[in-house]
Amino acid sequence: MTKYRKIGADVVMEILGGMLIALGVYNFALEADFPMTGFSGISLLLYRFLGVPIGLSTVLLNVPVAILCFRLLGRGFFFRSIRCMVLSSLLIDYVAPLLPHYEGSRLLAAICTGVLAGLGYALIYLRSSSTGGTDFIIMAAKKKWPHVTLGKITFITDVTVVLLGGLLMGDVDGVIYGMIVSYIMAIVVDRVMYGVDAGKLALVVTRKGQQVADAIEACCGRGSTLLQGQGGSREKRRKW
Q: pLDDT digits over 174-208, tens only?
């Protein structure tokens, strides 16, 4: 794939992902009146209390975080994220308002918000980009702790914003719905990025392989595979 084709594919995915996020935030979460996650949640609070446009406040909040994370995440990721941040902000402020708002059940709104936003963020993450804001913080944390999935990091960072929004709005139910959104988003991001049937593999290095396998079967009901290993220094064969 040539450089320009790759850039074109990146932009298409960023627009698609940004549109899904815009639908979730503006057309479902805003009317449902519950706290959202990340910088989108902070932007919704500024919109409700001060009337600041959501896209504009998102950009303003992103600038200091982007500067702080520039050196850690690299130049390429930084500029891709700036491009995606501008695109998603324009979609939220100018395209999403043209579409109908959902005014039904808050629970269904929370589910739709989590699914749509989760799909949008996953598509953007797959192109090694982000929408800025807490995404910069999430990616920085992922770089420091690569064994933790993006969905889990996203959920952890979103909890604070949801609780803050719930306290300011005085809405306990809203906090619960916000947590539902955070959880669904985390699940969707992980499933899209790592696969629906993703699992974990544990390697146990021991001289008592059969005993360990029997113990795992007894306590967890899981099967095990015994592997033949050879030491690198003494070249002794062992069963692991």
A: 778 888 888 888 888 888 877 655 556 777 777 77
Rounded Cα–Cα distance for residues 187 and 142 (Å): 16
* Interatomic CA distance for residues 184 and 176, integer angstroms: 12
For every residue of 49-108, DSSP letters joined together read HH---HHHHHHHHHHHHHHHHHHHH-HHHHHHHHHHHHHHHHIIIIIGGGSPPP-S-HHH
Both tokens assigned to 166: 């719930």
Q: For residue 52, what are the contacts with CB-CB under 8 A and spacing of at least 6?
A: 43, 46
As beta bridge partners, residue 154 has: none
Quick check: pTM over 0.85?
Answer: no
Q: Which residues pair with 230 in a beta bridge?
A: 237
d(CA 240, CA 237): 10
Computed over its alpha carbons, how large is the radius of gyration of the chain? 22
